[in-house]
Amino acid sequence: MKFKLLLFLVVIFLSVHLVRSSNMSVGETIVHQPSQVNLSDGHLFITRVNPSEAYSGQEVEIKLIVNSTFNKPLQLTATEVLISDAVYLDKNITLSTINYDVIPVHYYIWHFSLEPHSSKTLTYHIKFNGLGTFSFSPATVSDQFGDKADSPATYITIKCQPNGQCEEDENYLFCPEDCNTGEKDKICDAAIDGKCDPDCEEGYDLDCNKLNDTQKQSCNMLRDGYCNQSCLNEDPDCVSQAKTQTNFLIIGIVIVVIIALLFIAFYYKRKNNT
Ligand SMILES: [Ca+2]
Ligand SMILES: [Ca+2]
Ligand SMILES: [Ca+2]
């Protein structure tokens, strides 16, 4: 009995001690603090919507759509790292900068609140003066609980506005309307078009016909009309040659089989007649 009483007192002492150490009074309701709410199981989303293509110099609208399926209001911070090749047109959005290894990286940051089960669209505008395919890195959003969500990376291809002239910074790849293959446009297209592309290094455009016999016979992996014995399975000339030889062999076997069958049929027919 004494032992049970002692055990009861110890339990009471430890309970009071633990409650005191957590700054709570006896009988106070335990409330989960915000940091204990876990949203990482998919209550917060961010998506970027941008056109897949645009013209050089054309204003492009980019949308970041933030969506919450949580049942309480959220205080959110969204961040978008900016593409260095683009021109940012919204003067009313503050441009922030951070240095990574002395390289400045610009970004937009938005602070806003979101009601339960609602979404918000953040919009900004850019244009590109150069041609090419540019990638947006994932945009991020985080809430007051420390939970985060990332958008998928997206891409945009900037093409020229055709005007019939292959101008500086235009090329066959992103401005095929104005630039033909084989032109000096900083792109080696290596097309077999009868023109030696001045942008190609020696050996890449076969129209340049600069390969000497030694270069052709080496294992250069180029379709130069020579089957390089040192790379039989990789040289495109050997592969096509081998295919042709195999096709001829198959055709030959089929012809022999047909002749043999005709001969046998003819033999038995004659035998039956006699
Ligand atoms: Ca042009
Ligand atoms: Ca070229
Ligand atoms: Ca060419």
Written account of the structure:
23% of the residues lie in helices and 27% in strands. It has 3 helices and 12 strands, in the order αββββββββββββαα. It has helices at 2-21, 213-217, 236-273, and strands spanning 44-49, 53-55, 60-68, 74-81, 86-88, 96-100, 103-114, 118-128, 132-136, 140-143, 148-150, 154-159. Strand 10 (140-143) and strand 11 form a beta hairpin. The model is unreliable at 5-39 (pLDDT under 50). Bound molecules: calcium ion (3 copies). One calcium ion binds next to loops.
For this entry, give a set of tags.
274 residues, alpha+beta, Immunoglobulin-like, four-stranded antiparallel sheet, 3 helices, 12 strands, 23% helix, binds calcium ion
What percentage of residues falls in helices of 4 or more residues? 10-25%
Strand order across the largest sheet:
6-7-4-10-11
Mean pLDDT: 82
- The number of helices is 3
Low-pLDDT segments: 5-39
Total DSSP E strands: 12
